Task: inverse folding
């Protein structure tokens, strides 16, 4: 089997409501679908959700846009991979590294599509290619974006009514607001709801972050995610609070994971397939975390059903991924199992909803990623 073509297709989905976090300038719902065709008729799909205004510590990771992803995929990666065996993913990854430095979102989308082809060729779901499932479903953490206090309370309570048992609460712009909102949610939702405050590096330094965290009573806040920028400040926060600290912007690659473990800069790692550059490198991050005894989740930029399928396959197969994942409950219009929980978009380009039960999801059944693209909707949402 040989790769015959690689295409990058920008599209957007209508959002249920505005979702925003500290530092985010554009709205959610903007994607690039990558389609890889072969001489056997098998087609694989991947996806990028690039953000120009989001990266790693101190600007060390460049933002990407739909335009950069499309250009890199079609002008650099496609010529390098055309004619190659799509199932030899290690060789394809090495070829991508040779022709372009960085651009992890573009590389991840292509590698995702190659896994989809490989699974379809073997008649197996991607999670089996990654070693098999270690859990039956992935628990979902619903994101409560930066929004007015009463709106945030209503969003969280509606997600809880849908069976969601974990919330990621966006913060970092106003510490007073963050403390008051977490305290109100704990009082309303009770001790069993996992509350994770994500500051997106919003607190000025470790002393500021520790002052904020010291205001929470025991068991009031379950986790704090990326309160500050940089390993030194992250290590100071981790060592200075009993609240578990999750690294996000500080950990992209396996090298970052090693540095984070050595610096003792977090208790947990939030893994993005796109930050790492694909499922293979993300698996290396998870392996390092597992060896170091750090729990992980799978996170992202709120993908459509294509990218989210890869998220779920990965999370099913990685022992270290024990935390609820900040990912959607993907479904096309009219088929969503929840009113609010995991519902970020009014529609999707996939045909079937992800199976959902008790706050957890699985990918659709079938080989590869398990998803089927609705070509009419793709045409309607294409940009």
Result:
């Amino acid at each position: 089997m040989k790769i015959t073509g690689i295409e990058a297709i920008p599209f957007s989905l209508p959002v249920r409501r505005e979702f925003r976090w500290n530092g985010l300038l554009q709205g959610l719902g903007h994607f690039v679908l990558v389609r890889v065709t072969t001489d056997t008729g098998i087609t694989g799909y991947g996806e990028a959700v690039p953000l120009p205004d989001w990266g790693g510590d101190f600007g060390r990771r460049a933002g990407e846009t739909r335009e950069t992803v499309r250009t890199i995929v079609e002008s650099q990666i496609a010529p390098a991979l055309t004619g190659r065996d799509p199932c030899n993913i290690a060789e394809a990854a090495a070829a991508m590294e040779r022709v372009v430095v960085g651009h992890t979102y573009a590389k991840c989308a292509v590698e995702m599509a190659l896994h989809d082809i490989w699974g379809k060729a073997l008649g197996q779901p991607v999670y089996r290619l990654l070693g098999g499932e270690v859990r039956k479903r992935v628990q979902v953490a619903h994101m409560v974006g930066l929004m007015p206090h009463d709106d945030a309370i209503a969003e969280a309570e509606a997600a809880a009514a849908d069976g969601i048992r974990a919330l990621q609460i966006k913060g970092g712009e106003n510490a007073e607001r963050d403390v008051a909102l977490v305290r109100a949610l704990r009082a309303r939702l009770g001790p069993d709801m996992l509350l994770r405050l994500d500051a997106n590096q919003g607190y000025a330094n470790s002393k500021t972050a520790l002052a904020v965290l010291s205001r929470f009573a025991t068991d009031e806040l379950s986790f704090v995610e990326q309160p500050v920028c940089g390993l030194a400040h992250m290590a100071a926060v981790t060592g200075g609070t009993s609240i578990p600290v999750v690294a996000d912007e500080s950990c992209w690659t396996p090298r970052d994971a090693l540095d984070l473990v050595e610096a003792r800069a977090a208790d947990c790692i939030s893994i993005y397939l796109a930050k790492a550059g694909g499922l293979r490198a993300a698996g290396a991050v998870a392996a390092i975390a597992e060896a170091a005894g750090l729990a992980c989740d799978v996170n992202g930029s709120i993908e459509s059903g294509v990218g989210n399928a890869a998220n779920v396959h990965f999370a099913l197969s990685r022992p270290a991924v024990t935390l609820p994942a900040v990912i959607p409950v993907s479904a096309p219009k009219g088929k969503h199992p929840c009113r609010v929980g995991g519902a970020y978009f009014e529609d999707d380009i996939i045909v079937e909803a992800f199976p959902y039960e008790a706050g957890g999801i699985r990918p659709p059944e079938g080989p590869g990623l398990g998803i089927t693209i609705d070509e009419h909707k793709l045409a309607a949402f294409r940009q």
Observations:
- The chain has two domains: 3-123+374-381, 128-361.
